[in-house]
Amino acid sequence: MPRSTRSIEMKTLCLDCGMDTTPCTQSRGCRHTGRWEMYMVYHRVWQAAGMGKGFLCIGCLERRLGRRVVPEDFTKAPINRHASWETERLASRKRPASP
Ligand SMILES: [Zn+2]
Ligand SMILES: [Zn+2]
After folding, report:
1. Is 85 within the bounds of a domain?
2. Minimum-distance ligand to the CA of 89?
3. What's the pLDDT at 31?
4. In terms of pLDDT, which residue wins out, 31 or 49?
5. In angstroms, what is the span from residue 12 Cα to ligand 2's centroid?
6. Are 57 and 21 in contact (CB under 8 A)?
7. Ligand in nearest proximity to the CA of 18
8. Nearest ligand to the C-alpha atom of residue 59
9. What is the domain extent for residue 68?
10. Distance 20 CA to ligand 1 centre (A)
């Protein structure tokens, strides 16, 4: 690891496709609304995907699982509450299929 006084950037790239799951330009008026895939699923789901540390976008998580992610896969963590910054894909997975 290179030793540096630079602040360590938090990387949240998808392990499989390299998509930045939390894109942000850090500039004023940054438009990351609807572009974040920050979520938390239960450990067993994460393990089933063969994951330990790291991040996956929803698409790659589902490819690894071989199925669609369902609302029950998400933990009750505050991070999973609906927010305007999440992608439509992620939002749809957290919505119950039928009332
Ligand atoms: Zn991905
Ligand atoms: Zn931003």
Report:
1. yes
2. 1
3. 75
4. 49
5. 13
6. yes
7. 1
8. 1
9. 43-94
10. 8
Kindly report the pTM of this predicted structure: 0.83
Measured from the alpha carbon of residue 37, the closest ligand is 1
> Given the structure tokens 């540390």, which residue do they identify?
53
Q: Is residue 15 part of a domain?
A: no
Ligand nearest to the Cα of 27, by number = 2
CA distance 78 to 75: 9
User: Is residue 48 assigned to a domain?
Assistant: yes
The answer to whether residue 8 is domain-embedded is no
Average pLDDT value for residue range 86-93: 95
**Considering its fold, how many domains does the chain have in total?**
1
Amino acid at 7: S
**Distance from the alpha carbon of residue 5 to the mean position of ligand 1, in angstroms:** 30
The Cβ of residue 74 has, within 10 Å, a number of other Cβ atoms equal to: 19
